[in-house]
Every structure is written in C-alpha cells, then in structure tokens.
Design goal:
The chain is mostly helical. The protein has one domain: Rhopdopsin 7-helix transmembrane proteins (Up-down Bundle), CATH 1.20.1070.10. It is built from six helices and two strands; from the N terminus they run αααααββα. A two-stranded antiparallel ribbon has the order 1-2. Strand 1 and strand 2 form a beta hairpin. Helix 2 packs parallel to helix 6.
Length: 158
C-alpha cells in the first residue's frame, strides 16, 4: 500500500467485504426462510452494519474521485497534501461519518412477529415525518452530493 489510491481502494474493498460477508447472508437467509432466525441483537447489528458499510463505500468513492481530480488536474498543489497519513485521516473520517449518520437505523430497528410464529426484522418509526426526513437526508448525503462531486471531478478530468 504505497500509494494514496491503493489505500483508498483497500478501504473500499474492506467496506464492500463487510457488506458481502456479514450482511448479505443475514439478509438472504431470512428472505428465503420468510423468517428472521438470528434474534434481536443480530437484527439491529446487521441493519447497522449494512448502513455503515454502504455509507463508508460511498464516502470512499467520493474520496477516490477527489484524490484523482487533484492528482491529475492540480498535480503541483496536490503533492503537498496527498500523503499516506492524509489518506488515513480521510479514511477515518469516512468511517466516523458513516458510523454517525446511520445511527438512527439501529434505534428504529426491531424484531417483531409477522404472523404464524415468524419473526421479521423491520424499522419502526414513531413519526412518519421523521422517517421521511431521515430518508431524504440519506438520499442527499449518500446519493445526490456524492453524485455531484464525482460527476464534477471526473468531468473535469476528462
């Protein structure tokens, strides 16, 4: 891992591996069985891990696109601050932001009976307006802003 880009790519691989190894099986099995068999702790933990890994991947993709933009379009300016220690700080920031913005998900997630003795892992919000606001917030922070930043940086590179 001698380059900044490789460090970011490793971080992207870790967040995607977290999603693949710990989240996908725990999502697919209950869908197949039509029953969540892993208990209340895993219900909350899996939903939180899913959100964190998706957010960390998203933020890492933005970091990669901005790093590439500065390396290609402003190489003299970027050499001063594009160091491995700076990349590690950006990665820590990506994970901290991911951990924080997804906090409402485990708060709203619970295991409930779905009929015929089957359990379901669902989000239950006490306030529909709050749920809508949080969904819009996630759309803006994890979709709209990253899309604009990545589109802008890659368009300028071309």
């Amino acid at each position: 891992m001698r380059t900044v880009t490789n460090v970011f790519l490793l971080n992207l691989a870790v967040s995607d591996l977290l999603l693949a190894a710990f989240c996908m099986p725990f999502t697919l099995i209950p869908i197949h069985l039509k029953n969540f068999i892993f208990g209340p702790f895993m219900c909350v933990a899996i939903r939180y891990a899913q959100g964190v890994s998706v957010a960390a991947s998203c933020f890492t993709l933005v970091a990669i696109s901005l790093e590439r933009y500065f390396a290609i379009c402003k190489p003299l300016h970027s050499r001063r601050w594009q160091t491995l220690s700076h990349a590690y700080k950006i990665i820590i920031l990506c994970w901290m932001l991911a951990l924080i913005i997804v906090l409402p998900i485990p708060i709203a997630t619970s295991l409930m009976e779905g009929g015929q003795g089957r359990m379901m892992c669902v989000e239950i919000w006490n306030n529909n307006d709050l749920e809508k606001a949080y969904t819009i917030f996630l759309d803006v922070v994890l979709l709209f802003i990253p899309l604009c930043l990545m589109t802008g940086s890659y368009t300028r590179i071309m």
